[in-house]
Amino acid sequence: MNRLALVMIARDEARAIARALESARPHVDAMIVLDTGSADDTREIARASGAQVHEFAWCDDFAAARNAALAHSDADWNLILDADEWIVGDGRALGPDALPAGGGGVLGEVRIENLADQPGVEGTAQSWLPRILPRGVRYEGRIHEQPASDLPRRRLDLVLRHDGYAAENLARKGARNETLLMAELQARPDDAYLWFQLAKEHQARGRAPQAAFCFTEALRLAPEDVGWRHALVVRALIALKDNGQVEDALALADAEVAHWQASPDFYFVIGDLYLEAASREPDRAMDHFLPVVDSAWKRCLEIGERPDLDGAVAGRGGHMAAHNLAVFYETLGRAEQAAEYAALARRLRS
Fold it and tell me: I want to staple 5 with a disulfide (CB 3.0 to 4.6 A). Which of 75, 81, 163, 314 is the partner?
């Protein structure tokens, strides 16, 4: 019996699957790939990389596919990896000290660095997801499936990188996720997490009105203590601003500010929001809006980076905030301060 197995579902992932498997192979005892109907060389590449390859007839249900893949594993622990993800760093968190033989009573959460290039959400956004499951745990949910388990979650020092949100890869996937999310919402119209995921799909494709509507529904339905609340609030602020709902965004910011005093992402977006408000009401800009822009981006630098926050974007607590301050002061004609923050941005980026 194996201690740790990689378990993956894949379809038409010849572009990326070797990268994913090669990153995991040194750390696992077995690699299992369930192909859901590839028309390219996905299966052949997976076998050449050392994986066991099985086939599954796609049925528009990610949980069903995940569970079929898990049924091929006899390991104490299963590492769930998608083909457009790969392990970065040394992978010591996958060793027997952290994941002992015989399994354990926890779900292991890992940090995923999502590479995105869409306006408003470009950068590397961090998310924490349960990707290390003890034997016997299965999934539920047709789309954005989750482990069906009440086991406690433990964050592990493992980082995955994901490029599936890059524009070219989103285009390749087409409307698949959106179609499945709409079907799920017909069955579960009060599920805040589904509204949140549909909002992100719209936002990634530049559909501001749809994104703003779906984020608003997610905010209405979501409990305040859900683990993805930070990402929801920050991305909702961006969506409302992009849709021209500046007053609504300002109201949301006022309602949420007490909860995110230590979030550089929140203050980074506040700076953008108040700059937009200043452009709409120039008579109030100097006395009301621009001082908030200045203090918000400086607050980002005071807090620093917070990769532990779900949805945090790398740089908002560092070089991105400094760059914005440099441009801000240059626009105001304050050359000395602009140069100071431009130099800081270069230092932080390096």
Answer: 75
